[in-house]
Amino acid sequence: MPSGAVGCTVSASAALEPQWREHFTVSGGAWLLPYIEARVAGRQFPREEMLEKFRVLHQKAPDSYESTCVRG
């Protein structure tokens, strides 16, 4: 699987549109779609479950960075 990528931000509902689903599939992120679907449906975000799924798939913990986003 390629490791280089270009990122962007889309809303959860936009991520479920066909063109974005294809991006998730091509980039190896299709496993995230059920979590996004659940969130759009108003269900709680299973953070620990999702992190464990990442660990199993990638044999490592996900990278983590401090947010520089300022919300007003």
Report on this structure.
The chain is built from 4 helices and no strands. The chain is an all-alpha fold and 72 residues long. The mean pLDDT is 86.
The shape, in one word, is globular
Quickly give the structural class. Answer: mainly alpha
Count the E strands: 0
Ends distance: 38 Å
The profile of the biggest β sheet is: none
Mean pLDDT: 86
Beta-strand proportion:
under 5%
Highlighted features:
single chain; mainly alpha; 72 residues; 4 helices; 0% strand
Layout of SSEs?
Blueprint: H1 12-15, H2 18-26, H3 33-40, H4 47-58
Write a brief caption for the model:
The chain is mainly alpha-helical.
